[in-house]
């Protein structure tokens, strides 16, 4: 399997991706426990999943389908919060002053 090959090669990002895909596969088969297991394994091999809103949304969906509504609400909340934190970071990076400074620096370099 791809997961076995990734493990032999010790490619953590590929191992994580395989686990994430297996989580999606088991979710589509209504095998909630296996799905959650593979989502958790994915983040163990690639902690960047914790920065991705869709990761929390997937887990929230599995919890909802398993009638674990309280857990589902908590993971949906994390998903929403991670989206907003990304928007805040983006807006800080592209504030008017930062854009103006970047433009002025570029303009000065041309002369």
Helix and strand topology:
Blueprint: H1 2-9, H2 12-28, H3 32-45, H4 53-65, H5 69-93, H6 96-110
Helix pairs in contact: 1-2, 2-3, 3-4, 4-5
What does this structure look like?
- This protein has 111 residues and is mainly α.
- Helices cover 83% and strands 0% of the residues.
- It has six helices and no strands.
- Helix 2 packs antiparallel against helix 3 and helix 4 (53-65) packs antiparallel against helix 5 (69-93).
- It is flat, with a radius of gyration of 20 Å.
Overall pLDDT confidence: 81
Oligomer: single chain
State the share of residues found in helices, binned by percent: over 70%
Unreliable stretches (pLDDT < 50, length at least 5) are 93-111
Largest sheet: none
Characteristic key phrases:
about 110 residues; mainly alpha; 6 helices; about 85% helix; disordered C terminus
């Amino acid at each position: 399997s791809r997961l076995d090959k990734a493990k032999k090669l010790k490619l953590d990002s590929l191992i994580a991706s395989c686990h994430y895909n297996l989580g999606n596969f088991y979710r589509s088969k209504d095998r909630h426990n296996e799905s959650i297991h593979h989502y958790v394994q994915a983040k163990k091999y690639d902690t960047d999943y914790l920065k991705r809103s869709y990761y929390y949304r997937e887990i929230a969906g599995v919890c909802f389908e398993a009638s674990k509504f309280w857990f589902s609400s908590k993971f949906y909340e994390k998903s929403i919060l991670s989206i907003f934190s990304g928007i805040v970071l983006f807006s800080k990076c592209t504030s008017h002053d930062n854009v103006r400074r970047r433009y002025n620096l570029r303009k000065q370099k041309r002369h």
